Amino acid sequence: MADQDTSKPGVFDLGEGLTPVDIWQGLHASEPLWIASAGVEGGKENQTRIDETDLSLLKKLETFPAKRWAQMCDGIGRTALGAVALSWCQSSNDQAFKVAWSSAVNDEKLSDSQKRALKLAEAYD
User: Fold this and answer.
1) Residue 21 to residue 38: CA distance in whole angstroms
2) Measured distance CA(114)–CA(80) in Å, rounded
3) If we measure between CA atoms, which residue out of 93, 95, 101, 96 comes closest to residue 118?
4) What is the pLDDT confidence band of residue 5, given thresholds at 50, 70 and 90?
5) 3-state DSSP call for residue 17?
6) Angle at 12 between CA 97 and CA 17, to 5 degrees
7) What is the pTM for the complete model shown?
8) C-alpha torsion angle, residues 37, 27, 93, 70 (rounded to 10)
9) String of b and e for 100-125 (b: at least 16 CB within 10 Å)?
10) Which residues on adjacent β-strands are paired with residue 111?
């Protein structure tokens, strides 16, 4: 298959040795750091750096099929960040994002991290 690195059969290489699972883990690992930065001295700058890193990870998904991302998230468990990442994937659309978001986010009142996640999705538009 054209989308696979032959040194890692079956693994979709997104460049720089990153796989879709690496992207998912990176996004979810940075979330508590972003939250912890809120309201502390230098926190805004730290949050900006975290956002920039996360956006660079999301950009890697532009060549990854949305269907495969959705399948992976079904297996791992639906999250707001997983839904946002879906919006960056190849062949994604608003309907797919809305379905993924509504299955990951149950509350009408969004948490700060969910609001941040939506901003990351909007950065793609």
Assistant:
1) 27
2) 6
3) 101
4) very low
5) coil
6) 110
7) 0.85
8) -140
9) bbeebbeeeeeeeebebbbebbeebe
10) none
Number of C-beta neighbours around residue 97 at 10 A: 20
For 10-55, the pLDDT digits (tens) are: 789 999 999 999 999 999 999 999 999 998 999 999 999 999 999 9
What length is written for the chain? 125
Measured at the CA of 54, the angle between CA 52 and CA 59, to 5 degrees, comes to 95
Q: Letter for the amino acid at 15?
A: G
The first and second tokens of residue 77, run together, are: 């468990």
CA separation for the pair 91, 62 (Å, rounded): 9
- Rounded Cα distance, 114 and 117, in Å: 5
The secondary structure element, H or E, covering residue 13 is: none
Query: Do residues 120 and 84 make contact, with C-beta atoms less than 8 angstroms apart?
Result: yes
Residue 56 corresponds to which tokens in the numbers above?
């660079």
Element (H, E) at 42: none
